[in-house]
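Wait, can you check?
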Amino acid sequence: MRPIDIASAAMRVVGIPQGEIVSRSRRPELVRARELIAAAVRTLTDASLPEIGRLMCRYHTSVMVMVRRWMRRPPEDREELLHRVMLETLRPSRARWVVVTRDRSGGSRVRGGHRWHG
């Protein structure tokens, strides 16, 4: 399974769109959602930290911190959420990820002209 598929499933589980996941916001619900995505992709695929970081517009060190924080959560919470993500990956989705890059001024650009369809 591709990291994008796992990330899309995790976003559907938490109900947060891609635009908010890749934003700079530090709202607690977004931080927890990013931790879930990073941990799910890291656990369920062989993607490297830099690959996961590129997927989420973050540095690989940020992904390391996300996965560490995820591992500090109670095991029951972790297992239940990862189980929900795995089940969600089995459902067909019309969602597509777009490639978002940051420019030097801190703004975001969408490459490829695609838009997120949740």
